[in-house]
Specification:
The protein is mostly helical. The chain has two domains: 91 residues, Helix-hairpin-Helix base-excision DNA repair enzymes (C-terminal) (Endonuclease Iii, domain 2), CATH 1.10.1670; 101 residues, Endonuclease III, domain 1, CATH 1.10.340.30. Helix content is 56%, strand content 0%. It contains eleven helices and no strands. The structure holds iron/sulfur cluster. The site of iron/sulfur cluster has 15 residues, from α9.
Length: 215
């Protein structure tokens, strides 16, 4: 018989407890000092490592100081500035488009609701959840590649669809833990539950994980 929701919730609570003990300092690894900078960094992070994004934004945030600077930037100049993050033309169009709307329709301030954020060009649910969770204190869960992989291994979802995974996980994890969960799972995915070669013997979740030792 499958695991009941109640059993899943109990396992989720224990998973959180152990992750917090193992990764007490987990946090967003993108560098930023304003909400708009986090929005830019998150757009840049698609298909790119946070480390590379931080290398690029170190200079970018010196050159472009405000949402207006991005909104009225030459899109080709910006694309050159972010070239090494990949998909630079598309990302430059997203950053300029989103910034223009922020300046012209939101008074130069990044809006703080999911509905408004996803109305910005190039901003999807993942980016919006990241900004909401980090800067607005809204319980929000980012479903990235580590979350998709590890939550499937843990048997807490059976989907590869980020929106569906988000819905399923929000039913079993406490809202207070949503933001931290993603950061801890990213750390776990980088250090122990590594793609294609998880080190189950060193995993604090091994007795809670149906995939332990099977990969
Ligand atoms: S037991 Fe293995 S598969 Fe399960 S979470 Fe830990 S490292 Fe990943």
């Amino acid at each position: 018989m499958g695991e009941s929701v109640k059993e899943k919730k109990a396992r989720a609570a224990e998973i959180i407890h152990r992750l917090k003990a193992a990764y007490p300092n987990s946090k967003c690894s993108l560098s930023y000092s304003t909400t708009h900078e986090l929005l830019v960094a998150t757009i840049l992070s698609a298909q790119c490592t946070d480390r590379r994004v931080n290398q690029v934004t170190r200079q970018l945030f010196e050159k472009y100081r405000s949402p207006e600077d991005y909104a009225y930037a030459d899109v080709n100049d910006l694309a050159r500035d972010i070239h090494s993050c990949g998909y630079h033309n598309q990302k430059a169009r997203s950053i300029v488009g989103a910034s223009l709307k922020i300046v012209e329709e939101f008074g130069g301030k990044v809006p703080g609701t999911m509905e408004e954020l996803v109305s910005l060009p190039g901003v999807g649910r993942k980016t919006a959840n990241c900004v909401l969770g980090e800067c607005f204190g809204v319980p929000a869960m980012v479903i990235d590649t580590h979350m998709i992989r590890i939550m499937n291994l843990l048997g807490l979802t059976d989907s590869r669809n980020p929106n569906q995974i988000e819905r399923q996980l929000k039913q079993i994890f406490d809202p207070d833990d949503w933001v931290g969960l993603t950061h801890m799972i990213i750390d776990h995915g980088r250090s122990v539950c590594v793609a294609r070669r998880p080190v189950c013997g060193e995993c604090v979740l091994s007795d809670l994980c149906p995939s332990s030792g099977k990969r």
